[in-house]
Specification:
This protein has 527 residues and is of the alpha+beta class. It is 34% helix and 16% strand. Helix 9 (252-264) runs antiparallel to helix 14 and helix 14 runs antiparallel to helix 15 (414-431).
Length: 527
């Protein structure tokens, strides 16, 4: 925990129960913050930033707390932006909407749906994922195979810098930025950045080199460069018709053969459920096809029912030789039925016994599409070697999967085995030309591995960028750029070394995690 200065910020909460309620997020950590601030206006955020810079007090910006990589927890002062920034101002003519940092994806969707519009990226956490959090992590979701990540849909952001100044930064803006990429560094960036379909792995210097837009530095910066208070989002028309199919494959090699063909058909979603996850769902009593190594759920949005029906037929015929199971749907009701198994994944993980917790340690790797089969096989083999069961699922159309480690917390040496698995999978990602995060961000968990992907020269550019925006290092220190004492599996919320907090708050935090209740204001957990 960071020590607080003698002069406290007005309204700062420093009681143990409130701090304990903010000690966890959706990931693996439990870290007691020094204090908690819940601002309700931009002027309050400005004053907080000025106080933090003057007193050298670290700030940890946070939305709903559903981030997996530990970017929303820390020993500084939590800045809870999930409650006080709820403005929602549409411009239907331009098909855009300004959303305060507290507004959720679901609230944007509800506002836009009657007008036949939606926000393209659709994180699975959309019921509670906040606008500010989505922009800060460059979030995505199942439809990213067609629509990309949040970056492609952000028109502008309102931010408060470490100096307390407010700025509006828009796409194509001409205002000078605090930092620019030296022209001599452009070839280095193009050489060192992996070529994956998605990435939320540090500062997006590759995109910035292409666009010159400061916006591309701020999106995905995880609260390390500025605090986002509002986002202007671009909306798109909702396609009128949809079809889909579930394909079963008996081997991962068959999956690898199928993916390029399906991606060429322009699907709106392409989701993988590995056999490791199917076993958990089957154990919960759900009937699933036998003899499949994995299932692939494909969705095709089209302008007419005939077009949707036609592309589903093309998909089935084209994969006839490599599939062992096929089930189709040609309308939204049928598609909902097919997707039911995907929605059972999280509840199945939540029902695990307390001795076998789902820990998101190697959970967001992304590789070039043609190497996904090798990545999944490599993760499976590494998990077997280290005696750690895993559940694998995710966005196959982007070469991007989530891996939940399921260690037996009563087994001697399980933390060491988990650390070895983390290191081996990191090596595998580097070998396959991947990135450690496709959509969840680097956070604290993965900060210490970035140099292995980009090299020391790119990390030096990251540090220069950070210093230009935040010269005293008060904005989310230890996120993206590692702390000197970085240890990825320190401060676990599980196990005998977990920090002790009041029992009732620990139970409430566990209930939030099991029920995906991240929309619950954390101040309520302390009452």
């Amino acid at each position: 925990m960071s020590a607080l200065p003698p002069t406290l910020f007005p309204g700062l909460r420093t009681d143990l129960r409130t701090r304990a309620a903010y000690s966890e997020g959706a990931g693996i950590y439990r870290i007691l913050p020094a204090g908690v601030a819940v601002p309700h206006s931009v002027s309050e955020v400005q004053a907080l930033a000025r106080w933090a810079t003057t007193t050298r007090t670290p700030l940890v910006p946070r939305g709903a707390g559903s981030g997996m990589a530990g970017g929303a927890v820390g020993g500084g002062v939590i800045v809870d932006l999930s409650q006080g920034f709820r403005d929602l101002v549409p411009d239907w003519k331009r098909r855009t909407v300004w959303a305060g940092a507290s507004v959720t994806w679901a609230e944007i969707a509800e506002l836009a749906r009657p007008y036949g519009l939606r926000l393209g990226p659709d994180p699975s956490s959309g019921a509670f994922a906040t606008s500010g959090g989505m922009a800060a992590t460059n979030a995505a979701g199942p439809r990213s195979v067609r629509v990309g990540s949040a970056r492609d849909w952000v028109v502008a952001v309102d931010v408060v810098g470490a100096d307390g100044q407010t700025r509006r930064v828009g796409r194509g803006g001409s205002s000078p930025a605090p930092w620019t990429l030296p022209s001599a560094a452009h070839p280095l960036v193009r050489e060192r950045f992996p070529r994956t379909r998605k990435s939320s792995s540090g500062f997006a210097l590759d995109r910035y080199a292409d666009t010159g837009d400061e916006l591309d530095l701020l999106i995905g910066s995880e609260g390390t460069l500025a605090l986002i208070t509002a986002v202007e989002w671009r909306l798109e028309p909702i396609p009128p018709d949809v079809g889909g199919a579930v394909f079963g494959f008996s081997t991962l090699e068959a999956l690898g053969d199928a993916l390029p063909y399906l991606v060429a058909l322009n699907p709106s979603a392409l989701e993988l459920l590995d056999g490791s996850l199917l076993a958990l769902v089957r154990a919960a009593g759900v009937e699933l096809p036998e003899g499949v190594a994995c299932l692939l759920l494909a969705e095709f949005e089209r302008e007419t029912a005939a077009a949707a029906h036609s592309v589903v037929g093309d998909a089935v015929r084209g994969l006839k030789a490599v599939t062992s199971h096929v089930e189709t749907a040609v309308d939204r009701a049928g598609l909902e039925r097919l997707w039911a198994v995907r929605r059972l994944a999280s509840p199945a993980l939540a029902r695990l016994p307390e001795t076998q917790r789902s820990l998101q340690v190697i959970e967001d790797g992304c590789v070039p599409l043609e190497r996904l089969g090798a990545y999944v096989a490599g993760v499976r083999a590494a998990a077997h070697r280290h005696g750690i069961p895993v559940a694998i699922f995710g966005h196959a159309g982007d070469g991007h999967v989530h891996v939940n480690a399921l260690p037996d917390a009563t087994r001697a040496g399980w933390v060491g085995a988990l650390a070895a698995l983390f290191d081996e999978v990191t090596r595998l990602l580097v070998e396959l030309g991947g990135v450690p995060s496709g959509e969840h961000g680097i956070g604290r968990l993965r900060a210490g591995v970035l140099e292995r992907f980009y090299g020391p020269e790119v990390l030096a550019l990251f540090r220069d960028l950070k210093a230009a925006y935040d010269p005293f290092g008060v904005l989310n220190p230890g996120v993206i750029l590692p702390a000197p004492d970085w240890a990825p599996l320190a401060d676990l919320k599980v196990g005998p070394e977990a920090l002790s907090i009041p029992d009732d708050i620990a139970r409430r935090l566990r209930a939030v995690e099991q029920g995906a209740g991240w929309a619950t204001p954390k101040t309520e957990l302390a009452s």
